[in-house]
Amino acid sequence: MHGKSIAEHVKCVEAFVKDFGSERIALVTSGGTQAPLEKNTVRFIDNFSMGTRGATSTEYLLAAGYTVIFMHRESSLLPFSRHFPSLFTMLHVEDGKAVSSDAKLVDNIQKSIHYRNRILFVPFVTLDQYLHLLEGICTVLEPLHERVLVYLAAAVSDFYIKHDDLPTHKMKTEEVSLPLSVVPKNLQRLVEDIVPRSFVVSFKLETDESILVEKARKALSSYGHQLVVANMLHTRKEHVVLVDNEKEMHIRLTDKNKEIEEDIIDNIKERHSDHMANAGTAQ
Ligand code: PAZ
User: Domain named DNA/pantothenate metabolism flavoprotein C-terminal: which ranges (predicted)?
Assistant: First the structure.
């Protein structure tokens, strides 16, 4: 969290959107959450997500003209730098300076400089921080109404141990107890009470394909938002299903030189434009 409290992060968002100039703004959530197993946390529940979907989508959102609040798990992947997991080995020293002539590296550094005034990084680590930040940031964005796209790509824990049930100290192996509770779903409240005019996209990950679309439909009808991007764990980089109240649309990656997020964002931008137009928002 870079030493900032939730309230301080929310204040940064307020300052960032105060002079908001572009026509659209996206709140992107990215990466997994930690749910502690002890008050003095040594162990926690976590998941596989490195934030590839969120970081990649953010690059395409910026290119599509969005300003982005990038709410990401600390130390997960970031837009532009995500392409270089071993940056250190790409540099050499010339006249006491670290340099590289790698064209892709140069291009991505230039892009990240180009967009730096249009992206705000807001880190989180735990499930609790994630939930509070999401609510706080959405509250700040509400006055921007239909111009807001909420893009919930983070893999949020479904289980946690309530604060009162957490042992204070490192759990002893002979006293293992995991009184897990199900994380209360906050999406309905978000959609109905906090950002009722925004375009809200949630993600649904499954490992059993036979229930994927049914689960996405259930989320749509429970929370009342606009779109679910449904994906399978092992094919998430090549295939997603966009599920709305009327139909399903499959996006399949056929060109190996492309990233599926380019098509996802193209499609979502169009849907968001319709949402704004239907509400009479100038574009
Ligand atoms: O971080 P990543 O790119 O490896 O994975 C992305 C994802 C699978 C976490 C995302 O596309 C997603 O489905 N998020 C929601 C997960 C869920 O709570 O169902």
Answer: 142-269
